[in-house]
Amino acid sequence: MNTSRLDELIDGFLQGKLTEEEKTLLNAMTSSDQEAARQLQESKDAYVVLQQMADEKMRDRLKAFDQERENARKSRARSRIIIPVLLVIGFLLLAVIIRQTGCFFSE
Amino acid sequence: MDPVWLRAVHSGGSAGEEAAMHIYAAYHTLVKSWIGRQIRLHHSSPMDPNDILHDAFIIMINKIRNGESGEGSITTFWYGIAQYLIRNKDKKEKKIQLVADAEEVYGLNEINPELMFLDKERLSRVEFHFEKCCGRCREVLLMWIQHYSMEEIAERLQFSGPTMARKIKYECFKKLKKILKNRNELLP
Q1: pLDDT digits (tens, 9 = 90+) for B98-154
Q2: For a Cys-Cys bond, which of A73, B38, B122, B172 suits B118, CB 3.0-4.6 Å?
Q3: Handedness of CA B78, B79, B85, B89 (dihedral sign)
Q4: Helix B3-11 and helix B49-65: axis angle, to 10°?
Q5: Does the distance separating the beta carbons of B177 and A46 come in below 8 Å?
Q6: Long-range CB contacts (< 8 A, 24+ apart) of A52-59?
Q7: Which one of A35, A45, A51, A66 would you mutate to disrupt binding with B, by most B Cβ within 10 Å of its Cβ?
């Protein structure tokens, strides 16, 4: 058995990149050689586990993205409240100053 | 479907990951509100729209990566998968309600040799063990599974070149297979 060729074919099979010809070759290799069949099965299993790991990583990434968006939305909402409040406080202070000094633009 | 994003996701690598996040950013609000409506209108069992949104997105990206992108728009594709997940979850919930209380643990400690699908706890044990024993292997293999080219892996992880990246990937995959072969030892 040509091990490196088998590894190449298994890699291609796992990533869905085999041509029809290569699929036939891999099929022939695994049906005539138990060791090759075992290797293919082990690789398939490991690939499924890797796919699970990749999916978990993607899920974490999506959650982080959502969280970031949510924080940005909250901070926008906060600033929408804070700005009018500051404006009102500013006007009130101005009114108090005008009242205490008695006039506005006097002398 | 947007052919540029689709092509990028299909070819994988860093451009593929970026395109996937573009798709998510562009449509997730729309799809999430659609999922929320579907759950409210047709389904009685409690579901988190975010979970459905994420699971459906991950399945969709894996399908696109494997060349199954469908005919319609990205959102239609995403809706279809989400709809399927909602129905499945609903069916599952109804089944559980019909039967007596579920056993706390069933099948978790049995290992089915036909199907290597790890429960969350066992998966994180494998990941932990893998990271502890094999340094950057997890990173290399996760990039490989996302169809990064060997050139990209070498560049990103600062290996001397694609041949070295291929060699490291081969060794890492071998180590992972060995860990999985002895997975019984990873049980608590």
Answers
A1: 555 544 444 334 444 444 556 777 777 777 777 777 778 889 999 999 999 999 999
A2: B122
A3: positive
A4: 80
A5: yes
A6: A52/B117, A52/B118, A52/B123, A53/B123, A53/B127, A53/B138, A53/B141, A53/B142, A54/B142, A54/B145, A54/B146, A55/B58, A55/B62, A56/B123, A57/B142, A58/B20, A58/B58, A58/B61, A59/B54, A59/B55, A59/B58
A7: A45
Q: Do B116 and A49 touch (CB under 8 A)?
A: yes
Is pLDDT above 70 for A106? no
pLDDT tens column, A60-86 = 999 999 999 999 988 888 888 888 888
pLDDT in tens, A2-13: 678 899 999 999
Nearest by CB to residue A7, choosing from B28, B117, B170, is B170
Picking from A42, A50, A65, the nearest residue to B145 by CB comes out as: A50
* The pTM of the whole model exceeds 0.90: no
Distances (CA, A) of B8 to B11, B15, B156, B166: 5, 6, 18, 22
Tell me which residue in B24, B66, B117 faces A65 most closely, judged by beta carbons.
Answer: B24
DSSP-derived secondary structure for A22-33 = HHHHHHHHHHH-
pLDDT of residue B157: 92
Distance from CA of A49 to the nearest CA of B (A): 7
Q: Do B25 and A65 touch (CB under 8 A)?
A: yes
Tokens read off for B93 = 């919930």
Interface predicted TM-score (ipTM): 0.78
Nearest residue of A to residue B25, measured between CA atoms: A65
**And the tokens for B89?**
């979850």
Is B176–A42 a contact, with Cβ atoms under 8 angstroms apart? no
Q: Do A16 and B66 touch (CB under 8 A)?
A: yes
